[in-house]
Amino acid sequence: MMSSGSVGGGIAPGGDQGTAERYKRDFWIQENLKHAVPHYRLQKVARVANRIARGRECDLLDVGCGPATLQRLLTGDMRYFGIDMAIHEPAPNLREADFLESPIGFDGRRFGIVVAQGVFEYVGEFQDEKLAEIAGLLSQDGTFIVSYTNFGHRSKQLFEAFSNVRPLSEFRQGLARHFRVDRFFPASHNPSGGQPARKLVKAVNMHVNRNIPLLSTRFAVEYLAICSPRRP
Does the structure show a pLDDT above 70 at 109? Predict the structure, then answer.
């Protein structure tokens, strides 16, 4: 990511479409290379996706897939598809597209699992529009796995490319307009902010999938939501 500063240092909570428009392919083609090696959050999301799939045949769409690193961590019979603004190695299962300018989709397919990690902080005022598009991509019994930064962390940091800075409560309300939110829990806890780096801390966080009273609101780095389609 680019340099960071405190929340409130130039981008107002709620989003900035202009910021989203400034960070396009030239930025992400370089930024995505930082995620070629699986980092902690990606490993945890893969763990969650594998548990949901339970080895069954399933199509998974990775929205904002970067270098498609998640593909290497999936098990069982999942068929991987990815969409991103900057694809490094073109492949039939990868689609390069600016999904702020066009609807999120992949040849009319529906998916058993859709993943969006580290994406919704960058969508500006398009949050509801993009959530609605993803809801339309899920199969009837599908699952949406999404991450979102805890901007209430005691060490508040904001990357320059962030364009959708909202409290967790607002983001969860947005999810609830389009999905049934089945679970909403911290992906990791780290008092100093940032993803866990030490081996023991990573191992402990990998197995903690619940809110910790009094601690999570201040020390959770980001949250994961597990969502399903809303029933009529």
Answer: yes
